[in-house]
Amino acid sequence: ILNVEQSPQSLHVQEGDSTNFTCSFPSSNFYALHWYRWETAKSPEALFVMTLNGDEKKKGRISATLNTKEGYSYLYIKGSQPEDSATYLCAYNTGNQFYFGTGTSLTVIP
Amino acid sequence: EAQVTQNPRYLITVTGKKLTVTCSQNMNHEYMSWYRQDPGLGLRQIYYSMNVEVTDKGDVPEGYKVSRKEKRNFPLILESPSPNQTSLYFCASGRRGGSSYNSPLHFGNGTRLTVT
Questions:
Q1: Which residues of B touch A32 (CB under 8 A)?
Q2: Contact B105 A89 (CB under 8 A)
C-alpha cells in the first residue's frame, strides 16, 4: 500500500481569501496525479489530471502544480467562494491502481 | 448523459447474506474499479478491471468478488458480508492505456452499506 498524504486535514477561510493545499506521494512508478472535488452527499468530480513534471493546470479560480521528482502537488484556490466548500482529494496513479489521500476539507465562510 | 450508475444507494443487510452492488457505465470505458470509503481513511481500491474478463485485486480485496462479463457492467459481490464491510462504496470508470492515463475517473453516486 502506497502512502499519499494531504495537508492540511481541514481548513476554514473567509470568502475572498486565497488558499492552497498539498498532496505528497511516492516519486516512483508514477503515471499520473489526480485532483477531485467532493461535495457532501455527492460523488467525487475530477478537477485535474497531471502526468508531467512541472505540469500546471488551471480551471477558473483553481489551479494545480506538479513536482514528480520530489513527489508533491499543490492545489490553489484564488478568491475562495462559499461554493468552493468541499473536500479536495488527490490520487496517485501507478497505471492500473489508484491511491487516494484522506482529503482536505475546505469551508469558506461568507 | 454520460454517467456511472450504482445501485442501490443504501443497503442494510445481515451478516452472511449474499449481496450484489451493481455498477454500469455508458461511456465505453475500458477501466472500471471499486473503492470503499471509511472514516479517517482515503478511498481504498478493492478491485479493478482493465477490460472485459480482465480483473485484478486492489489493496483491500478480502471478502469481495467482482466480474466483468460486459464492458459496461462491473458488479461487486459480497458472498458472506460481515460488519467490518460496513462502508461507503464507490464505483468508477475511466479510459486507460496508451495516452489515456491523463483521463480522469468518473464516479458513481455511492452505495452506503450497513451489515448488522
A1: 101-102
A2: no
State the CB neighbour count (10 A cutoff) for residue B74: 29
List the single residue in B42, B58, B107 with the smallest CB-CB distance to A4.
Answer: B42
**B33 — contact with chain A (CB < 8 Å)?**
yes
User: For residues A9 and A76, what is the distance between their CA atoms, to the nearest angstrom?
Assistant: 15
Q: Identify the pLDDT of residue B98.
A: 54
> What length does chain B have?
116
Q: What is the pLDDT of residues A55-101, one digit of tens each?
A: 999 999 999 999 999 999 999 999 999 999 999 999 999 888 999 99
In whole angstroms, give the CA distance from residue B109 to residue A93: 22
* CA–CA dist B26, B93 (Å, integer): 10
CA distance linking residue B29 with residue B105, whole number of Å: 10
- Shortest CB distance from B40 goes to which of A91, A95, A102? A102
Q: What is the pLDDT of residues B62-103, one digit of tens each?
A: 999 999 999 999 999 999 999 999 999 999 999 876 556 678
Contact B22, B73 (CB under 8 A): yes
- A100 bridge partner residues: A91
> What is the spatial distance between Cα A96 and Cα A98, in angstroms, rounded to a whole number?
7
Residue with cell 506521494: A25
Nearest to A100 among B42, B106, B110 (CB): B42
**Substitution target from A23, A98, A105 for chain B, most B beta carbons within 10 A:** A98
d(CA B34, CA B63): 13
